[in-house]
Amino acid sequence: MNYRLLFSVAAGLSLLPCLLPVAEAYDLDAGRQTYSTNCVACHGVSGRADADSPVVEALGVMPADFSDALFNSREPAGDWEMVIKYGGYALGLAEQMPAHGEALSDEDIQNVTAYVKSMVDTSAYPPGEMNLFLPIRTKKAFPEDEYVYKGRFTNQDGEDAWKNVLEFEKRVGKRGQLIVELVHESEGDVSELTEAEVGYKQALSFSDTHVLSGAAVVAVPIEADGDGELQTYLAYGQILSPSWIFQSSLRLKFPFEGADDGSAELAGIVHWVHSPWPRRVFPGLELVAEQPFRSSNGDLEWAAMPQVRIGLTRGGHVALNLGVEVPLSDQAWDERVYVTLLWDFADGSFFQGW
Ligand code: HEC
Question: Ligand 1: which residue has its CA nearest to atom 14?
């Protein structure tokens, strides 16, 4: 296994878009009709609720503004269809948003969702459909607002080790995202804040079914030895079918002490999205291969990581990821277990919707 293999895998991935389902066409006029009859009183003609209207005042919560392009783009249409059908409460939002599943057919709901989505031009923003599940190692392409805790437990000869990472990711502008990370490691008596990472990610290309981003991250040591490193990556997300999603990333690590002591990591994951309800357990299988640039720095290491994504809140904006790493090449440890807790803070406070 070598670079040729890494790059043929990458080339194969780039062919995936050809296999894709074509987006359905919705009836926007029918959607507008449904909207004027059923939604306008609370959500307003333009999609922005009128704060002075007695109906809106009586609600006690302000419906979100559909005419805000960032907000409108970042919420997947499928999630909105669920909210419209089953009501706000069922998806962790306010119960003042009524369920329309009795009054409206699924087709009406799809049309009115498409109409609401068309209220503002969101073509410059990556669509929320592409905000796919966070994998363990594969980098995510969608720019978002998120706090993430990642824990990795390593069972090995001698003292077991923990690595804890706290990440803060903040959407910047139409396609960008700021990344800040703090890494803590402990092994036996040694427990230190090893490094801080700061970076930026930008969506380079996207559609309703794919997103490709590029990122650069600088890691600086805090208590650990060394000069730190520069990491760059390309991250790709793809909706393969209504129930399968695929993500992949190619990451290059360049230590400041000597760039050719770095490595290339190719990772990919497939998740089975078997339900539109976010509070479910979604299995995924991830493969990771890491190759040092110089063969004197070791051989290719690769591993499989079966994992599950567990939606904790009704809307799934707080979720857990559990996984194990199964080595497919020689390595120095016995087992590794991963725990990730994430909170998508654009979708509400941590305590909302449990
Ligand atoms: C009785 C008032 C009322 C009616 C009628 C109503 N909504 Fe809502 N809707 C709300 C409120 C209030 C919220 C905000 C819930 C929250 O943020 O917790 C909301 C939220 C939503 C959301 C979720 C937005 C988000 O935060 O992700 C969508 C989508 C939506 N409404 C669409 C519709 C559509 C389409 C109709 C008509 C078929 C409709 N609503 C009718 C009050 C209403």
Answer: 63
Chain-wide mean pLDDT for the chain? 90
Task: Give 84's contacts (C-beta < 8 A, 6+ positions apart).
Answer: 100, 104, 109, 112, 113
| Confidence class for position 1, pLDDT limits 50, 70, 90 | very low
How many Cα atoms are found within 13 Å in the side-chain-facing hemisphere of 291?
Answer: 14
**Three-state secondary-structure class, residue 281:** strand
- Residue 184, Cβ density class (10 Å: 0-12 exposed, 13-18 middle, ≥19 buried): middle
Lowest mean pLDDT among 76-90, 206-220, 287-301: 287-301
Position 136 pLDDT exceeds 50: yes
Domains and CATH numbers, the chain: 28-117 (1.10.760.10), 126-347 (2.40.160.40)
Judge contact between 86 and 109, C-beta under 8 A. no
Residue-by-residue DSSP string for 93-154: S-TTS---TTTS-HHHHHHHHHHHHTTS--TTS--GGG-PPP-SSSPP-S---EEEEEEEEE
Q: Where are the beta strands (DSSP E) in the chain?
A: 146-156, 161-172, 176-187, 190-206, 210-221, 229-241, 244-255, 263-272, 281-292, 301-311, 318-327, 333-343
Work out the angle at residue 108's Cα, subtended by the Cα atoms of residues 102 and 113, and round it to the nearest 5 degrees: 110
98 touches ligand 1 (CB under 6 Å): yes
Query: With 90 as the cut, is the pLDDT of residue 73 above it?
Result: yes
Interhelix angle 28-38/106-117, nearest 10 degrees: 90
* Rg, Å, the chain Cα set: 22
Q: Is 309 in the pocket of ligand 1 (CB under 6 A)?
A: no
- Is 84 a pocket residue for ligand 1 (Cβ < 6 Å)? yes
Whether this prediction's pTM lies above 0.85 is answered by: yes
CA-to-CA distance for 240 and 347, rounded, in angstroms? 25
CA of 64 to the centre of ligand 1 (A): 8
pLDDT tens for each residue of 21-55: 555 689 999 999 999 999 999 999 999 988 888 88
- CA neighbours closer than 13 Å in the CB half-sphere of residue 97: 21
Q: Is the pLDDT of residue 18 over 80?
A: no
